[in-house]
Amino acid sequence: MLDNILTMKDITMQFGGVVAVDNLSLEVNRGEIVSLIGPNGAGKTTAFNVITGVYAPTNGAVYFKGNMITSNFPKGSMKKLYAGQNRGVYTTTMRKTPDQITKLGVARTFQNIRLFKELSTFENVLIAKHMRSKANVFSATLGLNYKEERQMREETMKLLDILGLVEVKDEVANSLPYGQQRHLEIARALATNPELLLLDEPAAGMNPQETDELTSFIYDIRKKFNLTIFMIEHHMDLVMDISDRIYVLDFGKLIASGTPAEIQSNQRVIEAYLGVQDDGEE
Amino acid sequence: MSKIRKSIYTAILAVIIIALMFFLEANKFRFGMAYTVIQKGLILSVVAVSMNLVTGFTGLFSLGQAGFMAIGAYVTAIFLIPADGMAEVYYISGVNPSIMSFKYWLESGPAWVQSMYPILALILGGLVAAVFAAIIGFPVLRLKSDYLAIATLGFSEIVRAIISSPQLDTITNGSYGLKKIPGFDSLFETFAIMAVCVLLMVLLLRSTYGRAFRAIREDEVAAEAMGINLSRHKQMSFIIGSFFSAVSGGMLAMFMRSIDSKTFSVSLTYDILLIVVIGGIGSVTGSVIASLLVTASKEWWLRFFDAPLYIGNFQVPLFRTGFRMVIFSVILLLVVLFYQRGIMGKNEFSWDRLSLRVRKLLGGRKRGAKNAR
User: Fold this and answer.
1) Are strands A228-232 and A196-200 parallel, antiparallel or unpaired?
2) Domain A1-105+194-282 has CATH 3.40.50.300
């Protein structure tokens, strides 16, 4: 039985006159690996930013495990503009902040690595445990939460052990090699105990061998942490290899969705990636 | 370096500090300058560390320290000036009757409670400043970097203007300032209060909240994606920083014995900013060391430049009152240009680092000696 973990409904994200995401609806089921692909500037990262609450959408709603996490129901003149899109499902405007969404169980990585550069590997991961801490600032200062603190440290060590980052645990994040920085970013995301992991171009800047390793790494963490993975990626080998389903965006619009095989033979996708052929021969 | 050796060194250092304080306490009058400078340095180190907490560790560039210090200083002063001295202090417009009755109530307390009043006054001053910080933090902390600095600077000036306004004459004594504030009993008292404040801030920075603060400094977007509530944590850091700034302000009032609103002008904030920069943005020990050094050089070591200097019959030009501030500014410029990381950078004091430095220094010298041969 498939159950939806993430649903985006009629999401439109407009920046001034630019429509970055145009009426996007998609679903991710529990346990799947789903990819979001498209040419540069297609609005993939914007879609991620809407899911994680960095942007409030111009229109539409996002549901996580059936609960609305962000939605915007246009009013006034905007309502007319989006009249065709709203199906009366959501009639409220709500916006959870990124930290609230992370607490619900959505973790993410960033396209351009965003580690806490001057902190150690260990601290980078340990910070992700902060949000589950029950101690208030006074008891934490006086060290009354020492049990919790110890548990946080143990969990962090365990995670670093699983992900093979123990040897570099005291090194400053900025000094790590590129591949390890990517791993650390994923480790940090995993430390928030997510159910849904959003990976924004995890293979960016990796060579073919590292990309292969990443494939097995993603399978590995999905199994170990019982994850659903939704990722943006440009490496087609990796995408076709790993994805259960693929969504294709072009200029903010969803142009295709389906299994890797279906996508590979989809004419519109080929056109979007290679450009429309000017058939002079005909 | 082994742990035992380190703790022995630490113990020796502690003994030296305590012995030094005993010595100064006993020879207060012979070494008056050292005594005063150390006391003021200790007081300023509290506000320097609190500014470091907000600016260096949480990444909020706040310049409101002088305002919070003023709040702390005035609350502490009003609390502590003895009731029978009040009439003399407020000789122009008289005292607000509710303050007077509060003071009589205070002085009816048992003796052991009264001996705690300095501490209580400092804490009360801190709490009042914390309330102000919470109120202005809500709108102001949405601003980023420079804008936040400007807004907090404005706040600090507003506080100063309100304190000296004639409408508050019966409470703050307007622009005449407050006098007859009882001071510290000894250097130990100053040191103990400073040590407790700094220790609390260090413990905070080491706790899970301190890590969250540093995460915000490093990358706000990533910190938020890690589930850290930005506004709540920024607010927390700002309020705690303001609390300790106000405690330091109260201590300054006790140290100076008399204060007025001009004491807490913007230049005080700049002095503290200077201490933080020289000590190293993001280093607690750096702030403490720098506040002692800066206070000493400003008030004491550079005094030499203020007196006229004669070589034979020739009076060296420029050596006159105020020249020391020029030298001081030049030193500051040099630090900013060539030594931006400050004394400690982002590191804390550790014996390992010190021994490494010393060894490097000695090693370098030995090699130099060999070459000379």
Assistant:
1) parallel
2) yes
